[in-house]
Structures are given as C-alpha cells and as structure tokens.
Amino acid sequence: MHWRTILVLLLVLAALGGFLWWKQRAAQVPPPALELPLVAGFDAGRLASIEVDHRIRGLQVRLELDARQRWRIVDPLRDAAADAGVVAALIEVARSGLGIAQPAADAAVHTPAKLGLEPPRARVRFTERAESGAEQRRELLLGALDIDGRGMWVQAGGRVLHTSRALDALLDRNLDDYRERRALDVDPSAVTAIRRECAGAGADPFASEAAPFDAAVDGIVAGFPIWRVRAPRAVALDPLAVSALLRSACVLPVVAFVDEAPADLARYGLDAPRFSIALELGDGATRTLDFGRFPGAPAQRAAEGDWLCRERGSGPVWRVDTRDVGILAAALENLLDYRLLRAERASITRLALESWPAGAAAPVALELAALNGRWFTGEPGRAPRADGARVEDLLGRLEGIELPTYLPALAPSELVRERALTVWAGDERVCRFEFGAPHATSSASGRLALRDGDAVLVLAPAELDALLDPALALWRTREVWKHDELALSSIEVSAGLRKRVYVRDGADGTWRRDGARGPEARELEPVWLERALSIQAAEWLEGPAGELAEVVELALTEKDGSVQRLVLGRGAGGAIELELDGARARPKFPELHAALLRWLAAP
Fold first, then answer.
1. CA–CA separation, 56 vs 105, rounded Å?
2. Residue 246 and residue 191: Cα distance in Å, rounded?
3. Residue (of 181, 179, 214, 223) closest to 195 by Cα position
C-alpha cells in the first residue's frame, strides 16, 4: 500500500476519533441545579415584624404583629390595619419560596453589581422573636429581572439565587396597597345588635332612607338567629336583608384613603354625620361607622354620589363603596320580613288552627300533629288521622306566601282576631299569626294580621281564610279504615238478630260463610269484600248525630284477636251514613249497606 494512502487513512481515523470524543462530551448531563430556600431557617410562628424597603418606589413600610395577633402598619403610618392577604403572601414567600443557586463557575461573570444587587432594587427583612426576647433577622435582597421578565435574581444569607418574579410583583405596590381595605373587619356572626342613628331623618320612620332604628337578635329558631326591630316599633326583619346589612357594615370596602388624621371633621361632613351604623358585639364592645358627604354636595339618594366614612373615635377618613352605603341606608320597610313562614316544611311537626266565630264564648280549635310521617287531628296515635294531602297542601302554600305590605299607620288594637295560626318545629314554636277583618289599601287587599312579637300590623292574603278553617270535618282523612285481607281471620255482619260470619279459608284464601265447606257454602262476593276492607268517606258530618235506621254492623277480626267495628245505617234525611268511634260520615260507596243486608238475607 502506498504511504500516501496510509497517511490519508490515519488522518480519517484521527478525525473520526475526535468527532466521537466531542460527541461523547456533549452528551454528558450537566450536574443538577442546586435548589435552596429563599429564607433559610424561617419560623413563621416566631415572626414579629416585616420591613419592606423599595428603592425604586421610594417606599419604606414596617409591619408589626400586635398583642391581639393582628398585623398593623407602624411606619410610615402610626397604627393602621394591614391587609391580611398581603401579609400572608409575604410570609408564604419566606416559608416556601425556593431559588436556584448560582453555579460557582458563573460567580466571576455574574457579579452582584451586574445582577442588580449592589444596590438592590428592594429589600425585605423578616424579624423573628424568641420567647427569651432574642431577635433573629433574615433579609432578602431583590436584584435585576431577566430580559424576558420571567425570573429575577435575589440574594439571601450571602448566596445569590435565581427565582421567579412573584416576589417582585408582590412588592410592586403603593403604601395604600398594604392597608386593610375593609372599614371594620368584624365577624358578622359576632354582631348581636344593629343601631342606625340619624338626626335629620325623614318624617316617615319606615319609608325614609337612613331613618333611625334599633334591632337585635331576638332568640334562635331552628338554629338560626331571629332579628327584630326594637324601635321605632317591634317588627321582624328579613334574615337575608339582615345578612346583607351585616356584610356591608362589617366588611365595608374602602375605595380610597382621604385623610389619615383629620384635624377638622367638618371638611368631610363628618362633624354631624348624615347617618351612623353602630354594631354591638357579643363581647360587649360597640363599633360605630359615621357616614357623610363633602359640604355643599347636592341632595342625592343614598346609592348615588360620593360617601365619606370614618370609624367613630378612630383616625382616618375613607371614601367608601356607594352601593354598600345604599344597603346600609335602605328604608326600614325594605328590611322587614315579608315571608309568612320561615321554616323548612320537613321540620314542622305541629300546627294549631283557631277560629273565633261571632258571638262564640270560646274559639274553635284544631291541632294537627305529625308522627312518623303521618298527620293526626290531635294527639298522634290516639286522635283520628288527618288528610295528609290537605296538610301538605297547606304547608306548601304557607311556605310560598308573601305578605303584601305592612301597615304602620294602623294601631295593633285595631285588629279584632278572627283566626289564628301557630307553627311548631319539634317542641319549638316557630311563629304565630292572628288574623282579623278584611282590609284594603290602594295597592292590595286581604286581612289584617299580626305576627307574634310584632307591634306593626300586616296585610295577609285573603286566600289564607279558607286554608285556616279549623273545622275537623275538613281535616280528617277520607280513609275510614283500610285492612290487609291476609291479616284478617273473620268478618262478621249483623243487623238486629241476624248475623253472618265469614271465615277466611287458610287453604285457598276464600271467604266462606260460617266457615262451611262444600257446595252449600257461599263465598263473599269479591267486589263487596274489597269495599268492606277499604272504606272511604265522601264527607265527615258535624253537629248532633241522630239515630240511624236499618242499622248494619260490620266487625273485622285480625289474626291477633283485635276487633274493629263500623256501623252503617240510614240517617234522618234518608241518606246512608256510617259511624266509627263516635264520628259520623257519608260513605263514598253507600251501596255497601244494601250489599250487607243482602248477605244477611241470603239463605
């Protein structure tokens, strides 16, 4: 082989070897990046203060935890509530924020000055305090952002880390953005009374905006607080309206901070507020918000224009959300409870209906009580069964009835009661209404009514008059009795001296007269057997019961030996009537009387 050929082959092999060596080196995986906490050793349980020094914004803020474990701004403000969400976000950065450590090989190129850390754009200092009083400060310096704006450089504990720019976005805010934007920040469930004060309210205490009233929790029904106005006159409040009122007062949004330490409240119309909302808390404390407008502001509805607000005895003046002010200044008539019944239908266990007929010495009363899903016209298990469908229809209608209007101009003494309704849930009385004479206004008509505990009459729909009739005959179930054929052992039919007994044959299930077998035995006619086992009333009868003629007695004996008896006969008017446990009714199928007589007359 020629030496030139050998030289070419050697050069090719050398180039191939170099290429393979370069390829192998390029395929090597770089060492994994070292991920470290942004604030090493941070203990949120010992955190006492947070300081933010933002050089670009020219802002320095110091937040401290007070004795009641609330975060306050103490510098540059003297003592202002801090936004709990912002504080929580800062703590979360210190607790779980991570960054990628700068490789040692890049330290010479990526110096702190080139990374924007000398001087830093911003600084955050977390100060922890041990039980002994010793303090530990941990700082986090913010440097330059990446060119694409997705990441940034920080320095913590002498180490340079690369992290997301979430912290930069968190700190990019003005002083007011660190402040609590809720005027009071009170838990609505802790409020036990609401008082609205207004020196210059309109003449009508029910229809005027911002008119004074005093309301408080008036007991607990079915687990929910019942709110009632105490002044100007006692009247129930709509729980949804109270909920909206409490939300607006307890977490009233601050739109802007107007004056931190007002020297002259008259500049803001707060020396004599347009109206005030006072909240009494369960611990006995009272928090009051005063509302006003700039002097010279035109007369406007509460839901229009700018409103200024200040907590009485506190420092700053705020501009607040006008929509919430409209709720707080709503006329009392818009806050009243217009629902007749506020109870879940399934929880209602007892109803009492009363009626005062003209000239009667005592009311006609009826009690409807439930037991295991069944309704009775008195004590469950002893009183006659009630018509379940009629009771459910009453409950359904009561559930949906809205009271048309309140009548504060009328005195409660003008109500002459004619009917009454009382509702219980378990042993707890839910409500009671008394109803009087028909009444009409320019917009609605109905009956005068008064809710238990109220001192203001209301107009109730006229449809309630028929629903609340306590006549027992209307409420008893039309089912006189209903027996299972398989549970019976015998049926006895008697009229005077004649008597027939039908015994159920256990072998074939037929009913045979006197238990006889064979061709001479006569079976009970199937159609009349069905009607004898399931008897319904066309209507129950009231008033004095006269003697029955052509009486037939039907007695059913259960396998356990118990006997139930029913009498059929012809009443004074000639119609067939039945009598069971002293109650009279006209049967739905009066033909049963003739069938029983026919059975008795059969040979």
1. 31
2. 8
3. 214
- Write down the H helix ranges in 536-576: none
Give the per-residue pLDDT at 26.
Answer: 44
Distance CA 344, CA 209 (A): 33
Cis before 363 (ω within 30): no
Contacts of 555 (CB under 8 A, 6+ apart): 491, 492, 493, 494, 563, 564, 565, 566
Predicted TM-score (pTM) of this structure: 0.74
**SS3 call for 63:** strand
Based on the number of CB atoms within 10 Å of its own CB, is 590 exposed (0-12), middle (13-18) or buried (19 or more)?
A: middle
**Residues 6+ away with beta carbon under 8 Å from 365:** 352, 353, 354, 355, 470
The alpha carbon of residue 70 and the mean position of all alpha carbons in its chain are separated, in whole angstroms, by 29
Residues 330, 249 contacting (CB under 8 angstroms) = no
Largest Cα–Cα distance in the chain?
A: 149
Give the contacts of 574 (CB within 8 A, at least 6 positions apart): none
| Amino acid residing at 575 | A
pLDDT of residue 530: 81
- Which tens digit of pLDDT belongs to each residue from 158-197? 888 999 988 899 999 999 889 888 888 889 999 999 999 9
CA distances from 77 to 61, 232, 317, 486 (A): 9, 42, 14, 87
User: Could you tell me the two tokens for 152?
Assistant: 């940034």
Angle, helices 591-601 vs 526-533, to 10°: value is 120
User: In the prediction, which pLDDT does 29 show?
Assistant: 41
Residue 393's identity, in one-letter code, is D
Q: How far is CA 102 from the centre of its chain?
A: 54
| CB neighbourhood size of 166 (10 A) | 14
114 to each of 118, 119, 120, 133, 431, how far by Cα in Å? Answer: 8, 10, 11, 39, 76
From the list 343, 366, 335, the residue with the least C-alpha distance to 424 is 343
Backbone angles phi, psi at 385, to 5 degrees: -65, 145
The length of the chain is 603
| Residues in the chain with pLDDT values less than 70 | 1-33, 104-109, 201-202, 222-223, 515-527, 603
Backbone angles phi, psi at 138, to 5 degrees: -130, 125
CA distance 383 to 385: 7
Interatomic CA distance for residues 197 and 201, integer angstroms: 9
Interior CA angle at 505 toward 500 and 511, to 5°? 40
Helix%, strand%, coil% for the chain, nearest 5: 20, 40, 40
* 431 burial type by CB count under 10 A (0-12 exposed, 13-18 middle, 19+ buried): buried
What DSSP designation does 394 have?
H
**HSE on the CB side for 133, CA within 13 Å?**
0
